[in-house]
Amino acid sequence: MEDGSKAHRAGAVSTGRAHAKAILLGEHAVVYGTPALALPIPQLTATASAAWSGHAAENPSDLTFTMTGSASRAVTEQAFDGLRRLTAAFKAHLGVTGGPHLDVSLDGAIPPGRGLGSSAANARAIILALAGLFGRKPAEDEVFDLVQEAENLTHGRASGVDAMAVGAAAPLLFQAGRAQTLDIGCDGLFVIADSGTAGSTKEAIDLLRAGFRAAPGTEDRFMRRASRLVDDAKASLAEGEPEEFGACLTEYHDLLRGAGLSTGRIDALVDAALQAGSLGAKITGGGLGGCVLAMSRPERAGEVARRLRAAGAVQTWAVPLRRPTHER
Q: Residue 290 belongs to what domain range?
């Protein structure tokens, strides 16, 4: 075991960063082992800093936590509770005991409850900040395991896609704890629109499971259709067929809406995106609120974003999809 009083000399202040993500296709089904496609959103970041306060901690998880931004008091208190557990898990992983009191601050631009991976990004940023403070360079699988542990505490049974995607540099295919970079054969642009209403992953999971229990065969049909759409979307991206990919997005929205996971506001945003000329649109994330993701040709993206805001979106972001440089 390493005494924290020695470890604290490794660095006076350390910073960690992570970014948001959106699920392109595969929500909910990914928890059951089917594949999912995920998109990093580098425009939205979480930045954490960790430092020693200079006086001894009374217990291994003793720390001061500051969260900047527009988070509510309830969100901040929940984040603080999670941070205490995360810090204790991190120290246990390193074998560190004791040590000075920790000061941790988190500046997050990722709105919570929107299906954008805010909790996973926050956890990853904090883990990287703590690692630097203790003079460690954990392997990527170690970081993933710690973020995943935090996600399981936050959401219940987490698939792992968020924990992986908030540190990814390119779109991913994720399945059963493993990820690979997607083959991209076309350029495009995703417009992501915040409905202004937070969703609840836990409630959505419970609702879906209740529906599966109520109607025998529903679960099998849901998983088979989800898996087919993900496979079709993956092939469309690789072959440079944006129209076919967009159609997969819209059909996956129909799947989630049929399971009761959309809302009237979300459906209105999807309709607005389609009427504005997007190639496809869907809810992204756990459901019952959150964000809409629309794929657009670059020249139509401005109009898609404008129509989404007119339909009630409180903010929008544009995330480019690009082929690898060597294919241009």
A: 184-327
CA distances from 105 to 29, 53, 81, 232, 265 (A): 35, 12, 14, 42, 34
pLDDT string in tens for the chain (328-residue length): 444 444 445 458 999 999 999 999 999 999 899 999 999 999 999 999 999 886 655 555 578 888 886 566 666 777 788 888 888 889 888 887 767 788 999 998 899 889 999 999 999 999 999 999 989 999 999 999 999 998 888 777 788 999 999 999 999 999 988 999 999 999 999 999 999 999 988 899 999 999 999 999 999 999 999 999 999 999 999 999 999 999 999 999 999 999 999 999 999 999 999 999 999 999 999 999 999 999 999 999 999 999 999 999 999 999 999 887 665 5
**Could you tell me how many residues make up the chain?**
328
Q: Helix, strand or coil for residue 318?
A: strand
Q: Tell which of 175, 197, 232 closes a domain.
A: 175
Task: Give me 282's structure tokens.
Answer: 């869907």
Question: Phi, psi (5° rounding) for residue 286?
Answer: -65, -35
Distances (CA, A) of 36 to 33, 72, 210, 219: 9, 31, 22, 17
3-state secondary structure of 67: strand
Question: Is 0.85 surpassed by the pTM of this model?
Answer: yes
Do 198 and 225 lie in one domain? The reply is: yes
Please state whether beta strands 188-194 and 100-108 pair in parallel, antiparallel, or not at all (unpaired): unpaired
Half-sphere exposure of 308 (CA within 13 A, CB side): 35
In a shared domain, residues 159 and 262: no
155 and 8 fall within a common domain? yes
Structural domains of the chain, count? 2
